[in-house]
Amino acid sequence: MDAVFKGKKISGILSILPETESYFDDEVENYDFPPKQTMRLKKIMGFNKHRLAREDSTASAFCIAGLKYLLENGRISKGEIGAIIVVTLSPDYFLPQISNIIHGECCLGKEVLCMDIPQGCCGYLLGLFQSFMLLEHMKDKKVLLFNADVLSHKVSRQDRNDFPLIGDVSTISIIENNEDVGVIRFRLFADGFRRKALMIPAGGFAIPCTAETAKIEALEDGNKRSLDNLHMDGTEVFNFVQNEVPPMLDAMFSDCNLKKEEIDYFLFHQPNKFMLQKLADKAEIPSEKCFMNIVENYGNPSGASIPVNIALNLKDKFLNNKYLCCLAAFGSGLTWGTVIMELGNMEFCEEIETNL
Amino acid sequence: MEEIYAILKEVRPEYDFKGSEDYVEDGFLDSFDIITIVSMLEEKYHIQIDGLDIIPDNFCTAAAIIGLLKKNGVII
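Above: the input entities. Below: the structure tokens describing the complete assembly.
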């Protein structure tokens, strides 16, 4: 799907970090692989440390802590909020939605629209897309876009292929109408045929969680996980990204009559360093314009990865200048997409740490 | 060929690669092993392997790996 918007601005980004950091070196013994073999992956994949939510923390708790921080510190007032969108794969409950929980806990007005979108790694692009559409009908009101997950709760700690990658960081982006912002181009794709490449098999109505689905099993690939756990087919996902993303970017640039050299920053989803480097090589993107350091600092925070990237690497620059950026994300669904838009001149761009 | 077997043995010392006709099919190599091998080949032979070539077919035998190296200009 292609779409064009005008006059929509991301005016602030808040990244909400859990205080717990877990180091790859300390986790090596959890895996049923020779330590030497596992340690080789540290440099290749960019494994170093990742942020983990407490076992009793929920995605809604991160959202509420973040919104209360914004309200208490004058970054936004309740009267400015027109809608809250939560993109998550970590719902507190089947019902109610996280957006409704935030709405109640933060005492927002009855006119504020609440919406959850279940999306993974492509969740920032889908969330922006929905936010921009809502803003067509909201005049001066703003959309709060939450990208929140606690997916570490769904990954086996004995799964070397999945656990070191995962990180729990949530973000809030404030999105508003602003006539000074130019054209924003979206391109989004999906391929449900390959949907099982990223999956949490049990927990929905198809396979409800039971004692049986919670049983950790030793698998042929040397990892241990249960049907309740998230699993990524690494080969399938890697090949998907290498095959689909570079041509998507080429076509987007061609259709926009843009050269890649005109882009100031390529802000990509952050699966792991190896995949990102190969993607940058294939797409002929200079490394200095494409940060690849989120996994080594925080782990892969799913749909929050793009705003997390901005808040870690560009928080100062994005306060006082404007930059032409190419955003791209790819993941569960399978879903992938790209956006070209100006970012910057934000009112705030910051990180906070919580004890969640 | 022996150079390739040495790399394979370093990555997964527990397997007899010479006795397998398909390392991926036989479960000797998973996606992380392939990534590790790519990294070792790139470092040893000073090449950059294209992401589109990082597929199981190019790592299922020592001969397939040699074919990939030759594609990248390595004389072996």
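Note for the figure: The domain at 1-356 of chain A is CATH 3.40.47.10 (Peroxisomal Thiolase; Chain A, domain 1).
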